[in-house]
Amino acid sequence: MRTSPRDRRRCPFQDCPSHRKQRSRIVIHGRYRSRRGPRLRLLCLTCKRTFGTRRGTVYYRLRSTREAFDLAMRLQVEGLSQTAAARAAGISVSTIARWRERAAAHARAFDEHHLAISDPHELQLDELCARGKGSPDETWVYGGLEVWSRLWAAKYVGRRTKRSTRLFLAAARKTCGHHADPVLVTTDPYVYYEPELKRAFGLNCVYVQVENLYRRDRILRTESKLVFGSPHRYAAAKARLEDGRRPNTSYIERLNLFIRRSISYLQRRTPAPARKARTLSDALDVLRCYYNFIRPHLALRFGKVTKTPAMQAAIFSRPLTFREIFNWVPPPRRKSYGIDFTVRPAREYEA
Hints:
Layout: H1 18-21, E1 26-32, E2 39-44, E3 50-52, H2 66-77, H3 82-89, H4 93-114, E4 122-129, E5 140-146, E6 151-158, H5 162-176, E7 183-187, H6 193-200, E8 205-215, E9 218-228, H7 231-239, H8 250-262, H9 277-293, E10 301-302, E11 305-306, H10 309-312, H11 322-326, E12 335-336, E13 339-340, E14 349-350
Helix pairs in contact: 2-3, 3-4, 4-9, 5-6
């Protein structure tokens, strides 16, 4: 496990040859003046270029303090609306919107680089309707939770279609990685989960559908059905569970409640223009990074220690802060034959 996301400093320039060698030689090269006082100037001995300590981070060329930026993001993940956060921080609403877009791009890069589950036990998937009352647009939030570590493994914002389900499960598969033991996947009876789970996970997956039967707005009983996976693999997957022996979707439903309470766009079903897929996806990216790496989870309390989902998944050994995440410098983008694989589709936003 790592103690900090900044174990070593790398050159922030994407075309520096040191990225191919997996080693950057950075030294102090004096200081330079800024509006808020002197700052360190660094030198990369590989490409012979100088840069400031904020180059490549969220705070680069920020015309405000880092404390104000961090405060605005903390207010956003605690459920305040964009207008309320602007009033509390003393910043204009348009500035809050630009800062959230910048923080979301950085949070996506941080998740892609650090988020990984070495040994997943149970994966629960569900969809959350984000459509406002009377709104013609159908926007859904796909969410995936690894139950043992409570890690928010994948998210996707888009329409409830087969293509959206395929991209969402591809993101979940990337987070879970390759493993020998079967992973138990539980969902609601959504029609596109069965073919796309076979496509994404293959035989290394035991898929169970869970259906809740309601009466007078209360759950009368729960029925589960093994869709694919042999009975002995299903028994092996259930033997690895530590949070109940019956298949259920209660943990992902609790995550959906947390998402609704933490994002002001989903608290009231009004047809607001902020319910666009890109705006909602940016807010979810910041919230997901906060949930996995910063916020201690009360279900992960062991004695006097309360862990974050990233600590339980053996990614980091302590809770992080927004300052540490935003000071992290992303690695260079992977390119092959002129194609940038980090660019997302024009109308879809995945984790």
